[in-house]
Amino acid sequence: MTEHSAITRDAPPEREQPALLPPVDVIEDSTGITLFADLPGVPKERLNLHLESDTLTIEGEMGLDMPKDMIATHAEVGMPRYRRVFTLSKELDTQKLSAEMKQGVLRIHIQKVEQAKPRRIQVNVG
Amino acid sequence: MDLSLFPRDLFAELDRLQRQMQQAFEYSPSIRGFPRRGFPALNVGHTERSVEIFAFVPGLDPATLEVNLERGVLTIAGERAGELPESNDKTIVHIDERFTGRFRRVVTLSDDLDSNAVQATYRDGVLHISIGRQETTQPRRISIQ
Q: Which of A29, A77, B2, B7 shows a CA-CA span of 20 to 30 A to A90?
C-alpha cells in the first residue's frame, strides 16, 4: 500500500472500541520521519490510517483464521484490534506520506516540508 | 498479571481486569509458566479435533522460523533482526519499542496430539499452527442402552 488513496483525511469514528497499543519504532533523519508499527494479524485491507490536521491515527482490525468451534484456552492477545494516535509536528508534510504493510509490520514515511530540511548556514567571517 | 505483549488503553485495561478476575481460576498451571511480555505473544485454543496455536511474530521470513513438536511440547524459535539505524548526528531514534533479537517460546500442550497432522501457516505476521488430536482421545457420545 503505497498510494495515498488508502489514507482517509477525516476524523476516526466518535465511539471508540477498546484496542491494543501496538509497539512502534520512530526514526528521524534529514528527509523525514519513519515509523514502524507491529500489527500482527492485520491484513492490508483492514488497516486504517486517519489523518486529520496534525493527528495521525493508526487503526487495524485482525483477521485471524480461527475455526468456528474453537474454544480459547490461553490468550495473550485479548482484543482483535489495535489503535495508536500520534501528533505530528508542523515541519512534516502530510501530503507526502507513504505507507506500506508487510507481514504485519506497517512502515510509514512522512517527508519534511522543503524549508524545514536542514541546511548548512554559511558563516562568513567579516 | 500482565499476560499481553501490548499495553492497552485505560478502558481496555479495566475491561481486561474484569475478564481476568473471571478467568483467573480457569488457567491451567504450567511448570513452564506463561512469561510476562514474552515474544512472540501466543494465543492457544482447541476444537474437538485439533489444538490451535497463534504466535504473533510480525515481520519475519517464515523460512527462518523454527517450530518443533516433541511429545506434546511445542517450541517456537527464531530471530528478529533490528531495523533501527545507529543514532548519529543525522539520524535520531525517537521511539524504540519493537522487539529485536533471538526468541524462543515453549508451550506444553496435551499429549494426545498427532504429530503427523500438523499444519503451520504464516500470514500477516501471525504463525498459525494447527495440530490434530488423536482419534482415540476425541470425545465420543456414549449411547445409553
A: B7
Q: Domains along chain B?
A: 38-137 (2.60.40.790)
* Residue A121: inside a domain: no
Instruction: Residue B19: list chain A partners with CB under 8 A.
Output: 78
Bridge pairing between strands A32-38 and A105-112? antiparallel
DSSP H helical segments within chain A, as ranges? none
Nearest CA in chain B to A18: B12
Say if A126 falls within a structural domain. Answer: no
A51-104 tens-digit pLDDT: 988 899 999 999 998 998 999 888 888 889 999 999 998 889 888 899 999 999
How many pairs of residues across A and B have Cβ atoms under 8 Å apart? 152
Closest to A21 (Cβ–Cβ): which among B7, B42, B60? Answer: B7
Whether A18 and B60 lie within 8 Å, measured CB to CB: no
The three three-digit cell numbers of residue B106, written as one number: 515453549
- Is residue A86 within 8 angstroms of chain B, CB to CB? no
In a 10 Å sphere around its CB, with 0-12 CB exposed, 13-18 middle and 19+ buried, how is residue B50 labelled? Answer: buried
Range of the domain at A10: 4-66+75-115
* φ/ψ bin of A80: left (φ > 0), alpha (ψ from -120 to 50), beta (otherwise): alpha
**Number of domains within chain A:** 1
CA distance A8 to chain B (A): 22
CB A34 within 8 A of CB A48: no
pLDDT digits (tens, 9 = 90+) for B13-39: 666 666 665 554 444 445 555 444 578
